Every structure is written in C-alpha cells, then in structure tokens.
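Filed under: proteins

Residues; backbone shape codes:
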Amino acid sequence: MSTIKLNSLHCEKLQDSISEDEIEVRINGLKVAGPFGVHKDETVQLGGISRSFTGTVNVQLVEKDANSATDSLGTRTVGSHPVTGNTLVFDALKHAYYTVNYTVS
C-alpha cells in the first residue's frame, strides 16, 4: 500500500476573469480540501493531506462557481512508486493553470 501526501497548491493563471477562484481538491472523486479562495500567483499550503491507496490514485482540482456549474481543472493519475516533491499540472481549461506539489511513500 502507498500513501499520497498533498503539500501545496499554486495558481499561475485563474479560471475566473473577474474574481478569485474557489478551488476544491479531490482524491479519487472525494473532496479532501477546500474550497479555497485563490488569487493569481498565490500558493495554498495543504498541510500534507494524505490518503492511502493501492495501484494508482486520481487527484482532481475543480473550480466551484456560485452562479454556474463546477469546472473541472483536470484529473491526474499518480502511481504507487515513491517520489518526493513532484508536481502535478492542472491546465484542462483554457484560462486556468494550477500545480500541486505532492509526495508518494
């Protein structure tokens, strides 16, 4: 069994053009953090959110909108091989660009 630990979330480019993004972090489809109000060039410390898994695990970022449907910023699959300080890129939508720093042990 492996454990993924999410360390931080960084916004390089916002999805919303008029305000902050409200970002929710999901692991295997379940909310594990957020929503966080995030601004461009801001880093949110995730406090080492961790989940155990076997095989692979899916990490997803979504942008919650009060006035419209939730936007998926992408889903990334992580394997069980140990890694330290790797980065996942979330750029599924035209205007959004986020990264998540993580460790697998």
Q: What stands out?
A: DSSP finds no helices and eight strands in the chain. The chain has a mean pLDDT of 93. The longest strand covers residues 2-13. The two ends are 9 Å apart (CA to CA).
